[in-house]
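CORE FACILITY INTAKE
Project code: CF-77B
Contact: R.S. (postdoc)
Sample description: multi-component assembly, two entities in total
Requested service: structural model of the whole complex
Turnaround: standard
Below are the sequence entries exactly as provided by the requester. Do not edit them.
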Amino acid sequence: EVQLVESGGGLVEPGRSLRVSCAASGFTFDDYAMHWVRQAPGKGLEWVSGITSDGSRKAYADSVKGRFTVSRDNAKNSLYLQMNSLRSEDTALYFCAKDLGRWLQYNWFDPWGQGTLVTVSS
Amino acid sequence: DIQMTQSPSSMSASVGDRVTITCRASQGISSWLAWYQQKPGKAPKLLIYAAYILQSGVPSRFSGSGSGTDFTLTISSLQPEDFATYYCQQANTIPYTFGQGTKLEIK
């Protein structure tokens, strides 16, 4: 069974940094691109970032470009999102999601993890 | 950015009803559209991609159609487990944007 488990969320002050992780199992991790999608409390979905299966290409939403960095460790079957200069508007449940392809050529998200909550507040 | 607009934003229906949700893109996206279902406290689930392809394991009462700017998700006969929020998503252009959601409630 494909499983994605996020971790690392928590309460952080504005301007600080946080790294969230996603542990993957049940599929050949290095065969697939991966994404981060977030959902502010009571709001809709916002795509944040994507990375190809080999990590060679990355893409970001304008709202996080220059502040967030996506990475992966295929040896550890893990996806990461390093979040710097956090703002209150970054408060959200952060989901990792598997792409249906390797090279960010599809960008359909399935499945998703259960999410990790990041709260940015003083 | 490509704006995705769903209608209605909410609706109520009864078990057995046929339901249609629409999604309009602010510019043409060919067939680069997906539909997701999200239940309270759960992660979204992919139902349909490439506008009309049913994801494996999704019941056949779900169907999608459209291309260019106008798309529809149809549930042919609502089941109790279908009451949820539905989102469309375009995969044509970065950033990959979602509609605001359609909340489907029990009448």
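Facility notes:
- The two ends of chain B are 36 Å apart (CA to CA).
- Chain B touches chain A at residues 1, 32, 34, 36, 42-46, 49-50, 55, 87, 89, 91, 94-101 (CB under 8 Å).
Invoice: internal transfer
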